[in-house]
Amino acid sequence: MNIHTRDVDRQPSDETVQDAIRVVRDWLSAGHGGAGLSADVDALMRALPASYPQLSRQYPDEFTVSADYKEALPDLQNGPSSLIRGANRPIQHVGISNFRLPIRFQKRDGGDVCLETSVTGSVSLDADKKGINMSRIMRSFYKHADTRFSFDVVRAALDDYKNDLDSFDARIVLRFSFPMMVPSLRSGLQGYQYYDIALEMVERDGVQHKIMHLDYVYSSTCPCSLELSEHARQTRGQLATPHSQRSVARISVKMAGDDKLWFEDLIDLCRRAVPTETQVMVKREDEQAFAELNAANPIFVEDAARLFAEQLQNDPRVSDFRVIASHQESLHSHDAVSVLTQGDTFDAVSLDPKLFETLIHRG
Questions:
Q1: For residues 155 and 137, is the Cβ–Cβ distance under 8 A?
Q2: Arch. (CATH architecture) of 174-363
């Protein structure tokens, strides 16, 4: 009995024949077959239509790019406006996110620290421009990457790639984790606390803005729960404990004037506002001290926002600011959140629907 496949009568395409011949050629090059078979294969290859050229499958190690060859390379990103797809509209920001490199940051004590930094760079794009050369943003930033960080360095990098890409607005964001040695409350131990910080330089309509973002992690003891626990102790002799939880505040400040606001300054400001920062090194006496510190500073999420704002509005180095606080409840299945802003920089009708999900401290 003969069994036939459904496509037994189908004629192979030229491309299929070409692939089959290449397999045979590879087999021949491995030392199989003979000269007569090689000649037959060469004849078959020459018989194929010109639309299926024989292409090299070997990487050309010796190939070098000449100026003429480079000039002739296609560049669709920077093509004419006739290539634009979709609405003929300007784009406020287009660029690259999360390219990383080591950057040296100066500390308040005069020393410096080299930190792995995530960089986001973007520019505006006119309605009649197809796109930008993304690598120019990286190349512009790398020119300044070996210089110790300052906003003047970021300004220079921003000016470079804004000019290179012929854009009117631009933005650079640097994100990193800043280490700071923190003493324990009573035991005399100390350890590194790490602070998520982002530095932002924005140029819009010819005006440059310097912005710092800091995530501050603290413990919040519920005032209501504290009072109810004390009521149970006093009226019924019932042991009860108030609930407290790890909480996160994202402090964003626009810097005013030329006076420098150090990372450590903004951290100290947060500690003055809400002193119940989570601890690094803890012995029994520290744990007891932390319980006492929480009892001395019970706060609702509304209190936290206002306490941070009180410190920010009294610092002449701070212009506009925003406080986002999230108390990640141990009582409820949901979190308590608040947002407080000053000035136009951070005022917004709409918030990112997943904004508060980002205020999670990952230990």
A1: no
A2: Roll (3.10)
